[in-house]
Automatic annotation (TrEMBL):
It comes from the Bacteria. It comes from Myxococcus xanthus (strain DK1622). PROSITE patterns: AMIDASES. InterPro entries: Amidase (IPR000120), Amidase_CS (IPR020556), Amidase_dom (IPR023631), AS_sf (IPR036928). This is 6-aminohexanoate-cyclic-dimer hydrolase.
C-alpha cells in the first residue's frame, strides 16, 4: 500500500524532516500514482521523472517542502530546459532557457517537480480540453470536466497523484477547478506572488499564480515561501503581517460576512450551487459570524464584462505575438483552435485606445467595488453557477468560434471580479451534490488580506472537513 497518498504536502515534508521517509520514496510513490492514474485522467502532459529522481537523490534545500513532489501547469511558468507550450500547437517547440522567479522559489522550498499539468490552449477556457494535450477528466466523474484553466493540476491533486500543484488564475482558473474537483483554491492578491520571467504578466494585471491544494495549511505554507515582489515588478501587494502558517492556527474572530447570490450575467444558478451557499451561510452563523445578504453591484456594472473582454483579448494578442517573436515565425489561423484565433482577431480589432479606455474603466470599477468592504470583512458567493459540466460543453459550434465565451461567462460569472479588482478570493469544497459531485463556495476578502481568508478557511475546514472524501479515481 502507498503510505503517502492520503497525506498533504505538509505531512509528507514532516516525514522527511523526521527521517521517516526519504525524498526519493515520496517521488517514486508519486510517479507510480501518475503512471497508474494518468491514462484515465490525462492530467499530466509532460513528465520529468528521471530529473526528479536525480534531484531527490541529491542534496535538497532545507525548506518547508523538502522532497515533496509537485507539478507545474503548462502555462506561464517557465522552467529551464523543459517545453512550455501554453497548451498550444503553435508553442509546442518553445523551451525556456531560464526558470521564472516563481519556479526558483518553488525549488528553494525543496519541492521536486515531476512534470507539467494539462491546460487549455493559452489558458482561455474554464475547461481543460485543448487539441494539443487532449481532454483532461474529472476524477469524481470521468465524463465531466475538471474545470480550467488549471484543470490538469486539479485532477492530479484530487486523484492523489501529488499533494498539491501549481495553478494560474486570470478569471477564475484556480477557483473553478477547485470547485469542480473538491479542492481548496486560493487566488492571492494582485502582486502577492511574482510574475517575473521571460513571459511576465501576459494579461496585464488580471493574472495571479499560486496552487491547488487539499489542505488550507498547504496553501498557506506555499504562499509563505513564494510571496513577495521580484525585481522590476510594476506592482506589489501590501506586506503580510506575519507568516500565513500562523494565520491558519489563529481563530478568525466574529466576521461580518455578506452573501451575494445574484448572478452578474443574469444566468440561472443550479439548485445545488444555491444549496451550497445557504448551507455555508448557516454554518457561518453557527460558528458565530454575522451573516447578511447584499449585492456587489456598482454603477456601470453592465459594461464591466465588455471592458474585461477588451483587456483580456489584448492579453491574448500580446501572448501570441510574444510567442511568435520567441519562435521566429508568424501566427496563422491553422496554428490555433478556432476560439483562440477568434479572440486574437477580436483583440487586434479593438486597438490601443479601446484597451486603454477599458483599463481605466476597470480601475474605476475596482475603486467602486472596494467600497463594498466598508462594513463587510468577507463576501460569500457561488464559485460556479453549475456543477462540473460534461466534457464538450465549451466546444465551438461550426461557424460560431466565439460562442464558448458567453457560455464561460454564465458558468463562472462570480469569478472575474477578484481578478479585475486584484482582491484575494478562495473556493472551499463545503458541499456535495446527491450524486457525489463537489460544489465549491467562494469567499472574497479585502485587498492584501489573505490572512483573514486563511483564518476563516481553516475554521471551516475544521468544522466541515473534506480531506477524507475520495473521488472515484484516486491513487
Amino acid at each position: 500500500m502507498d503510505p503517502f497518498v492520503s497525506l498533504d504536502a505538509t505531512a509528507q515534508a514532516e516525514l522527511v524532516r523526521r527521517r521517516e521517509a526519504t525524498p526519493l520514496e515520496l517521488v517514486d510513490a508519486a510517479i507510480a500514482r501518475i503512471e497508474r492514474l494518468n491514462p484515465t485522467l490525462n492530467a499530466v502532459v509532460q513528465t520529468q521523472f528521471d530529473q526528479a529522481r536525480e534531484r531527490a537523490r541529491g542534496t535538497l534545500p532545507p525548506g518547508p517542502f523538502t522532497g515533496v513532489p509537485f507539478l507545474l501547469q503548462d502555462l506561464l511558468t517557465a522552467q529551464e530546459g523543459h517545453p512550455l507550450t501554453h497548451g498550444s500547437r503553435f508553442g509546442k517547440d518553445y523551451i525556456p532557457d531560464q526558470d521564472s522567479e516563481l519556479v526558483k522559489r518553488h525549488r528553494r522550498s525543496g519541492l521536486v517537480v515531476l512534470g507539467k499539468s494539462n491546460t487549455p490552449e493559452m489558458g482561455l477556457l474554464p475547461t481543460t480540453e485543448g487539441e494539443l494535450h487532449g481532454p483532461c477528466r474529472n476524477p469524481w466523474d470521468t465524463s465531466r470536466s475538471p474545470g480550467g484553466s488549471s484543470g490538469g493540476a486539479a485532477a492530479a491533486v484530487a486523484s492523489g497523484m501529488v499533494p498539491f500543484a501549481h495553478a494560474t488564475d486570470s478569471g477564475g482558473s484556480i477557483r473553478i477547478p477547485a470547485a469542480a474537483c473538491g479542492l481548496f483554491g486560493l487566488k492571492p492578491t494582485r502582486g502577492r506572488n511574482p510574475m517575473g520571467g521571460d513571459i511576465a504578466d501576459a494579461v496585464h494585471w488580471l493574472v495571479t499564480e499560486h496552487a491547488l491544494t487539499r489542505s488550507v495549511r498547504d496553501s498557506a505554507a506555499l504562499l509563505d515561501v513564494t510571496c513577495g515582489a521580484d525585481a522590476g515588478t510594476p506592482y506589489q501587494a501590501p506586506a503580510k503581517a506575519r507568516p500565513y502558517t500562523q494565520e491558519v492556527n489563529t481563530p478568525p474572530g466574529r466576521l461580518r460576512i455578506r452573501v451575494a447570490v445574484r448572478n452578474p450575467m443574469g444566468a440561472a444558478i443550479h439548485p445545488e450551487c444555491l444549496a451550497a451557499i445557504h448551507s455555508a451561510a448557516r454554518l457561518l452563523e453557527d460558528l458565530g459570524h454575522h451573516v447578511d445578504e447584499g449585492s456587489l453591484e456598482v454603477p456601470g456594472d453592465d459594461a464591466v464584462g465588455q471592458h474585461f473582454i477588451t483587456v483580456w483579448t489584448a492579453g491574448v494578442v500580446f501572448s501570441i505575438d510574444a510567442m511568435a517573436e520567441r519562435l521566429g515565425r508568424s501566427p496563422e489561423a491553422s496554428h490555433f483552435e478556432p476560439f483562440t484565433w477568434a479572440l486574437y482577431q477580436y483583440g487586434l480589432d479593438q486597438g490601443l485606445s479601446a484597451y486603454l479606455r477599458a483599463s481605466a474603466e476597470l480601475q474605476r470599477h475596482s475603486r467602486a467595488a472596494l467600497r463594498h468592504f466598508d462594513d463587510v470583512d468577507v463576501w460569500l458567493m457561488p464559485t460556479l453557477n453549475e456543477l462540473a459540466p460534461p466534457l464538450g460543453t465549451f466546444s465551438s459550434p461550426p461557424g460560431e468560434p466565439m460562442a464558448p465565451l458567453l457560455r464561460a461567462g454564465a458558468f463562472a460569472s462570480h469569478c472575474p471580479m477578484a481578478n479585475i479588482t486584484g482582491l484575494p478570493a478562495m473556493s472551499l469544497p463545503l458541499h456535495w451534490s446527491p450524486d457525489g459531485l463537489p460544489v465549491g463556495v467562494q469567499f472574497m476578502g479585502r485587498f492584501g488580506d489573505e490572512a483573514t481568508l486563511f483564518r476563516l478557511a481553516a475554521q471551516l475546514e475544521a468544522a466541515r472537513p473534506w480531506a477524507q472524501r475520495r473521488p472515484a479515481v484516486f491513487g
